[in-house]
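Q: Please design a sequence for this.
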């Protein structure tokens, strides 16, 4: 069933049924969102002391056009099979018209971008994910397709929230390579278990940037490889990344790469994302602004390869839902579902000597 504007009309006479998929993609199709006016910058991105180098070192950036798309294609059909009333309480709770999406935004600080992402992306995705889990639980217990009332009752119960849905967003406990959000999974506990730092594991790191810093041209050298007809793009053709041999000794030094401006910002952001992944022992990352998001993945095999998706609309919560599902290993997707190509790095040897740091120009 295609999404229609009637989902916003939550009147008493509305009897249309919509799917959980319709509700999830409503943010992508919501046309009432005013573009935020942003004056915020992030000096920590352009300038700053490099953190101590962590092993393994970032060695290559690998564009993968279908990095997240394949996961979305697995999850979408299942969500399209879960129906609920368009005027239901759950739809009213998670629909973008009920969030901050319709309101004007003025971003003076980077924290304003973080607040928007938490309210308009993380919150509805977590709520829909929990409803999905409650539906599947009842379906497995009864062997029948559960109705909306039964699923909503379980979803809203404090017992379900405490015992079954074990995922949440929080700040990082790290003192170096600090991420804006750590997406955690709590380990299974019982009444006799005491919570501690060891009770949780970071599954995804999320870095939020302002549109003043992460402009469209920052990753242009990388995302251009996705373009149809670009002869440079070959599946698995990795882009070399040269890590600085030592950290900056001055907290005001530019910690950039080979170039200036957007190139320097790009190289610094890549080091930041990689450092957070290593610090948190995580495999999944999201880099996002109010308008665009990139998804990153690394394998825990000691390699220095960082896979990157094309840019997506930040309002596309289906992509975020699929990425978090893979990290949590739920909804039929996990790291084994992520298709990464065999890498080709041999072509680097044919390039001229590169003395700078950051992405090596092809």
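A: Design:
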């Amino acid at each position: 069933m295609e999404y229609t504007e009637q989902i916003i009309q939550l009147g008493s006479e509305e009897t249309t049924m919509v799917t959980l998929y319709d509700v999830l993609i409503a943010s992508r199709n919501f046309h009432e969102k005013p573009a935020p006016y942003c004056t915020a910058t992030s000096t920590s991105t352009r300038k700053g002391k490099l953190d101590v180098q962590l092993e393994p070192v970032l060695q290559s950036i690998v564009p993968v056009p279908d990095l997240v798309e394949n996961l979305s294609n697995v999850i979408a059909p299942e969500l399209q099979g879960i129906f609920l009333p368009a005027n239901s309480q759950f739809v009213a709770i998670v629909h973008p018209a009920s969030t901050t999406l319709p309101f004007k935004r003025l971003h003076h600080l980077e924290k304003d971008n973080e607040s928007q992402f938490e309210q308009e992306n993380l919150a509805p995705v977590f709520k829909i994910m929990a409803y999905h889990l409650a539906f599947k639980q009842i379906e497995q217990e009864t062997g029948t397709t559960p109705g909306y009332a039964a699923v909503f009752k379980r979803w809203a119960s404090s017992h379900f929230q405490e015992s079954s849905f074990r995922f949440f967003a929080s700040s990082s406990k790290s003192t170096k390579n600090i991420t804006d959000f750590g997406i955690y999974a709590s380990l299974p506990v019982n009444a006799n278990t005491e919570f501690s730092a060891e009770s949780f594991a970071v599954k995804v790191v999320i870095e939020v940037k302002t549109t003043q810093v992460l402009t469209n041209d920052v990753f242009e050298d990388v995302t251009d490889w996705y373009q149809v007809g670009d002869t440079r793009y070959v599946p698995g053709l990795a882009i070399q990344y040269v890590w600085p041999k030592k950290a900056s000794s001055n907290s005001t030094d530019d910690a950039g790469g080979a170039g200036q401006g957007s190139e320097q910002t790009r190289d610094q952001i890549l080091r930041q994302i990689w450092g957070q992944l290593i610090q948190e022992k995580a495999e999944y990352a999201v880099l996002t602004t109010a308008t665009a998001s990139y998804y990153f993945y690394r394998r825990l095999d000691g390699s220095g390869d960082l896979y990157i998706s094309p840019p997506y609309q930040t309002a596309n919560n289906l992509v975020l839902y699929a990425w978090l599902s893979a990290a949590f290993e739920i909804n039929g997707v996990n790291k084994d579902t992520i298709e990464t190509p065999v890498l080709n790095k041999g072509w680097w040897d044919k390039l001229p000597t590169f003395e700078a740091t950051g992405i090596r120009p092809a």
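Q: Thanks. Anything notable?
A: DSSP finds ten helices and 14 strands in the chain. The longest strand covers residues 200-208.
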